[in-house]
Task: inverse folding
């Protein structure tokens, strides 16, 4: 998209993915346009592959997304200021906290995976509430009959 439309379509004077990382850092992330620029990427890494000076753009975009969601200190017009977390990202923050907790507790993660697998016939075909718009145009992935962890244990056992 950047290749065809340039940065101007995203409110940045810098074209390409570099505009998605430069503009929020130069202007700050106080406006909706600047806060949305780090999300104008799929993070596939193609920009890093073709960058002539090997700037790890996906890593910077992830860092900027974290700034948008969590808030924190940034430099705006040459002064250090603290930005508040973006209001529209409360659900994302809650989901990331839940994921962190689940990944920090392997037993709970294993139990959740087994429960999800055993109740897969009860899972909805579309998401409720705000997720409905997303699932109206996409099929939700099918829940596998067994988790990767269970498959690995069954096929590989204790072999190393």
Result:
């Amino acid at each position: 998209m950047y290749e065809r439309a340039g940065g101007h379509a995203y409110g940045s004077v810098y074209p390409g993915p570099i505009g998605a990382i430069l503009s929020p850092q130069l202007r700050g992330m106080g406006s909706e346009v600047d806060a949305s620029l780090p999300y104008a990427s799929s993070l596939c890494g193609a920009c890093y592959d073709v960058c002539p000076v090997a700037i790890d753009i996906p890593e910077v975009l992830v860092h900027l997304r974290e700034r948008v969601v969590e808030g924190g200190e940034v430099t705006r017009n040459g002064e250090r200021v603290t930005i508040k977390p973006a209001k529209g990202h409360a659900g994302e923050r809650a989901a990331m906290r839940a994921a962190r907790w689940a990944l920090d507790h392997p037993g709970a993660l294993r139990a959740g995976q087994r429960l999800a697998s055993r109740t897969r016939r009860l899972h909805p075909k579309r998401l409720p509430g705000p997720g409905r718009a997303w699932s109206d145009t996409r099929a939700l992935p099918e829940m596998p009959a067994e988790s990767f962890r269970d498959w690995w244990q069954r096929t590989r056992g204790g072999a190393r």
